[in-house]
Amino acid sequence: MTLLKVENVSKRFGQLVAVDDVSMTVEPGELRAVIGPNGAGKTTFFNLISGFLTQSSGRILFDGGDISTLLPARRVWRGIARTFQITEVFPELSTRENLRIAVEVAAGYRTRIWLPRQVNAEIEARVGDLLARSGLDDKADRLVGELSHGDQRATEIMMALALRPRLLLLDEPTAGMGEQETYDITQLIRKLHKDEKLSIVLIEHDMRVVFHLADRIMVLAEGKMLAEGTPGEIAGNEVVQAAYLGKVA
Ligand SMILES: Nc1ncnc2c1ncn2[C@@H]1O[C@H](COP(=O)(O)OP(=O)(O)OP(=O)(O)O)[C@@H](O)[C@H]1O
């Protein structure tokens, strides 16, 4: 069954139509990229899927159920987790502590002061698993604020994964990164997608990352869907080249 189905969704801010009648589907295990020039409506589109904004019209289905009016936290419990354009971590805590917080939130233990030993062991095991999958084990006890931008972003992605999502939304995961960091984050996303069959939608400006990772690409321009297809189809699409790719190159 289709995991995410966005149907004719629009979002108006006063006179401005930031997202204009956009439809998109994401199949289980698919990695979908959303690209487009600045101000195209990409982040607004993400905010509609994650529930930070409510659409002006249209509807959003997740796993067959209508989530259009659900609050963000409810969508997380349904299985949608996201990261932000600006990394959201606790810089004064260690990597391990950041992940532990996310795991406790996910398990519903965050409001309890004392945890039974068995539960504690389960949480530790889950944190260890996230550290291993991200390759952050050797930085587990470093303060996140002292880590590289790339490792901070990896920590944030693993915090989102602690919520055990079925769909992960990544808003510009390589923003502001150098070559090596971009490569490392791309490899992490690829691993989560290919090895763990996680469904991912990502907004990304770096075309090398997009064409390396995506199964399908949607191009937004001025709120409208300009094109949609495989990386090969998008690379060969003259409208896209003229409106977007040509400008970037
Ligand atoms: N809360 C808001 N109120 C009013 N206008 C908004 C709001 N959020 C976004 N916009 C406008 O909607 C349009 C789309 O913005 P959005 O941030 O979604 O684009 P984007 O494609 O993510 O851009 P970028 O690549 O620069 O992040 C822009 O013109 C922006 O100014």
UniProtKB/TrEMBL annotation:
SMART domains: AAA. GO terms for molecular function: ATP binding; ATP hydrolysis activity. The keyword Heme does not apply. It comes from Hypericibacter terrae. Residues 4-247 form the ABC transporter domain. Keywords: ATP-binding, Nucleotide-binding, Transport. InterPro entries: AAA+_ATPase, ABC_AA/LPS_Transport, ABC_transporter-like_ATP-bd, BCA_ABC_TP_C, P-loop_NTPase. It comes from the Bacteria. The keyword Methyltransferase does not apply. GO terms for cellular component: plasma membrane. This is ABC transporter ATP-binding protein.
